[in-house]
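Support request from a user on the community tier.

User writes: "When I paste my structure tokens into the form, the page sometimes reloads and wipes my input. The last time it worked, I copied everything first. Here is what I submitted, just in case something in the input itself triggers the reload:"
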């Protein structure tokens, strides 16, 4: 399975000796667990931003001339 960097999207290489992943593009160095945590945080952030954007659009529509 190919791991993608949660920061830049580049392919990460696995270092067997340290059991960590390294992104040669942005330099992110993390274990499998850390990568999963980073992805979960990013997913939550994207969902939060999406909800804020939707609320803003609804408010703009509501306050606009009807």
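"...and here is what came back when it finally went through:"
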């Amino acid at each position: 399975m190919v791991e993608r960097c949660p920061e830049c999207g580049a392919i990460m290489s696995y270092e067997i000796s340290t059991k960590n992943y390294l992104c040669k593009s942005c330099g992110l160095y993390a274990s499998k667990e850390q990568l999963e945590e980073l992805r979960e945080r990013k997913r939550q952030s994207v969902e939060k931003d999406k909800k804020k954007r939707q609320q803003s659009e609804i408010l703009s529509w509501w306050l606009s001339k009807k």
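Agent notes: The reload is a front-end session timeout and is unrelated to the input. Strands lie at 12-15, 20-23, 29-30. The chain has one domain: 12-63. Escalated to web team.
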